[in-house]
Amino acid sequence: MASVSQSPVNLAGSLSSATSASDLLRSSIFGVNGVPLQTFGNGHVRPWRKGLNIVAKVRKVQKHEYPWPQDPDPNVKGGVLSHLSSFKPLKEKPKPVTLEFEKPLMDLQKKITDVQKMANETGLDFSDQIISLENKYQQALKDIYTHLTPIQRVDIARHPNRPTFLDHFIELHGDRAGYDDPAIVTGIGTIDGRRFMFVGHQKGRNTKENIQRNFGMPTPHGHRKILRMMRYADHHGFPIIIFIDTPGAFADLKSEEIGQGESIAQNLWTMFGLKVPIVSIVLGEGGSGGALAICCANKLLMLENAVLYVASPEACAAILWKTSKASTKAAEKLKITANDTRKLQISDGIIAEPLGGAHADPHWTSQQIKKAILESMDELQKMGTEELLRQRTLKYRRIGRFQEGLPVDPEKKVNMKRKEPKPGLISDKVLQGEVNKLKEQIMKAKELSSTDMDQNVLTEKLKREISYEMSEAAKALGIEEKLSKMREGFAKAENKPLTSYQIKNLENLKNEFNENLATAPNYGRLKYKLSLLKEITEARIFAEKYLKTLPLKAKVNEKFKEVLEKSTLKQKIENLKVEVEKAGASSFEEFDQELKEKVIEVREEVESEFVKALESSGVHVTSKFGQRSMLVFKAKVDELNVETNQMIQDVIESTPDVRNEVEMLKLEVVKNESAPSKESKEKIEVLQQHIKEGVADVMSSAAVKEKYQRL
C-alpha cells in the first residue's frame, strides 16, 4: 500500500493534548506520523479509497509520575537521572539489629563501653582491661560465626541491614508492556571498565521501602522486565550479572491470573538460549520460583551466609511437622546453606563474608563479590558460544543425578560414619547443653551405674577440649616452642634418666606457663571447659551422697511425724499457735520475751523427743540441739555486728586518708577483675592492710570489748 502522508484521522472520544515525546509513535505505519500509540487502546484500522480512518476507544487510566515526574527539574541535585530511582542509599546509618544468637556479643560490647566510660571519668589507665575484653569479643565473634547452624544462616540472610542491590546501582525501569515492577532492578553498568547488564531483586531497607518494593517478591511484570533486559544484553553482547535476594515470587491471585508460572517458565527457556555469559549471585535469600526465574546461569555463586531453597524452613516445617516451630529441624534437613548446595553441585562457589555477616562490613563484601564476578567472567569469556550454551545446559542436567546399585568403596563407608568434631570446633553452647543433659540424667537415675557410659564419653570429650585449649595457650605464650626443644633433647637421651638440670628447666617452664596462663587469649574458654568438667564430677558426688541418704531420710521423716503426733506435744504446739495469733507478730524477733521463752521451750522439747526417737531406732545423733538461748544469742550477735559495722563506717567517713584508700582499693579491684598481675595483687594487699590498721581502734574500744566478753 502506498504511504498517505496527510490522511485525515477521526478518533472516537477525546484525547489528552498533553503528550510527551516518548509516547509518540516514531515510525510511519499506514502513513500516520506523530499519533500517540497508547491512545489507540482497543482500536482498529480500516482503509478507505480517499484516505485512512482510524477508530479508537480511549481507556481511562490513573495518572502517575513514576518513574519520571511530569515536569522533571533539570537542576535537581545529582542530575536529572536521579529521578530514575526513588530508593537511593540511605544517608543515615541504619539502626543496629541484634539477632538472638548475637546477644552474648552485645554483653561484651556493653562491658567494653562501661570500662571506657570509667576510664574517661576517672582518668585512670584501663587499656589492659579494654584490650582483654576486645580480645574476648573477637574470640566470641569467631566462635559464633564459625559454628553457625543452618537456621542461624537463614536469620543472617534475612537481616534487615544486609547490603542490597541498589546500594551500588541506579536502575532502568519498565517491562515495555505497561508496568514497572519495583521488586526487580535492572540496568547497564561497568566494573573496571568492562560493561555488564545487571539484573536483581531489591528488598527495602525499612518498613516503608519494603512495602513499596513488595518485600523483594516479583510479579509476572518483573519477570518480563528481566526478560526484556536479558534479550537486550544478548543482542548487544553484554555479559549478564544477576543478584538474587527474594523470599519467592509474589503468590497473590492477580499474579496467578496474569501468568506467574508462565513468566517464570519463559525466563528459564530464554536463559538457556542466551549467547552471553551469565553469572548469578545469591546475596541473601534465594526462595522458590522467584529465585529460579533468574538463576539459570553458567555460574551460580552464593555469599557464605546466603540460603537457596524451594520452600522456606517455616513453610516446610508447617507442611511436614504441622508447626512452624520446627523450622530449625527443617533448615537442617533441607540442605539450603551455601556449603550444602556446593556439596550437592547446585552452586559453583562460595563468596566469603566478614565475621558478623555481610552487613557488618558491606564495603569489604562488595569487593569480594567484585573479585568473584571478574574471576568467573574471565573464565566464561574464554569459551565460544556453543561451548558456553553447552556448559550451561550440562550444569543443570547434572543436578540430582545419582546412580543406584553401585557398590560403595570401603573408604567411603568409613567416611559415612559420623565423626566427632575436632577439638576446638565444638561451641560452648553445645558443650553446656550436653553437660546439663548428663547432670539431669545423673539426678534422675536410681542407679548411677546406668549413666557411667554417658559420663565417660562426655568426660573424655571435655578432656580433649581442655588439652586442645592448653596447647593453644602454650602456642600463644611461646611455651610450645621451648617444650618442643626440650622433647628433642629428651629423645636424644633415649632411655637415660633425666639430669637435675633438665628437671629444673622443666619445672621452670611449668611455672612460667602457670604464671602466664591467665594472659592467654583463650584463657576464658579453657577456664569455662574446666568448670564444665568440675560440674560433672560434683554432680556425680552429690548424687552418690544423695542416694545414700535416701533410706535414712525416709526413717528420719517417719520418726519426726511420730514425735509430732504425741498427744502432749501436739496440744502444746496448738496452744502456742493460738498465743502467736493473738500476739499478731509475724516473726520471732517481734515476739515479747515471755512468748520467745515459750517458743524456745516447746522447740527444745520437740528436739529432745525427736533425738530420743532416733536413738531408740538405732540412728546415732552426733550433736543435740538443746541450746535454749540459741535464737536469742543469734539475735544479739547480729545486733553487735550491725553496731560494729556502723562504727567502722563512721571511722571511714570521718577519716579522709582511710576513705581515700577504700576508694583506691575499689578501683584497683575493678581494674584487675579478670586477670590481676602480681603487682596489682601486692598493691591490693597493702591497701587492705592500711585500711585494717585505720579501723583497728574501733575494735579496741571499751564498749565493743565489753559486749563481746558478755556474749
Compact summary:
GO terms for molecular function: acetyl-CoA carboxylase activity; ATP binding; carboxyl- or carbamoyltransferase activity. The chain has 711 residues and is an alpha/beta fold. Helices cover 54% and strands 8% of the residues.
Structure description:
β6, α8 (about 290) and β7 (about 300-305) form a beta-alpha-beta unit. The protein contains 25 helices and 9 strands. The strands form 2 sheets. Strands 3, 4, 5, 6, 7, 8 and 9 form a 7-stranded mixed β-sheet that branches. The chain has a two-stranded antiparallel ribbon with strand order 1-2. The longest helix is centred in the last third of the chain and has 42 residues, at about 525-565. It has about 700 residues and is of the alpha/beta class. Helix content is about 55%, strand content about 10%. The chain has helices at about 105-120, 125-145, 150-155, 205-210, 220-235, 255, 260-270, 290, 315-320, 325-335, 340-345, 360-380, 385-400, 410-415, 430-445, 450-475, 480-495, 500-515, 525-565, 565-585, 595-615, 630-655, 655-670, 680-700, 700-710; strands spanning about 45-50, 50-55, 185-190, 195-200, 240-245, 280-285, 300-305, 305-310, 350.
